[in-house]
Amino acid sequence: MVKENIFDKKLKKLDEDLTRMGELCEIAIAEATKALIEGNTDQARAVIEADEEIDQMAHQGCGRMRLDFPSQYSLSAAYFNT
Asked: Quick check: 21 and 54 in contact, CB under 8 A?
């Protein structure tokens, strides 16, 4: 069994968080569209309040996006196949 390194663990967590944020955004867009079509201000307010979770995840994720790239993940190394 291959042991995951710290970089891979961080990358996996970031992937999971971004996937969850995408799911929450899909729900928010659908609910906001429905509220707009129906003219339902209460539902629109609920969407705005629920947006706080997405905002918090985005702020937390931005801090994690600065991953320390080991040399094997270097963009130039990948580009020049070295």
From this structure: yes
Task: Please tell me the predicted confidence (pLDDT) of residue 75.
Answer: 43
The token duo for 60 is: 């937390």
Q: How far is the CA of 26 from the CAs of 17, 33, 37, 40, 58, in angstroms? A: 14, 11, 17, 19, 15
Six-digit token string for 62? 């931005």
Model pTM?
Answer: 0.65
Count of C-beta atoms within a 10 Å radius of residue 25: 13
Which of 7-16, 32-41, 60-69 shows the highest mean pLDDT? 32-41
Residue 56: its pLDDT value, please? 86
Contacts of 44 (CB under 8 A, 6+ apart): 32, 35, 36
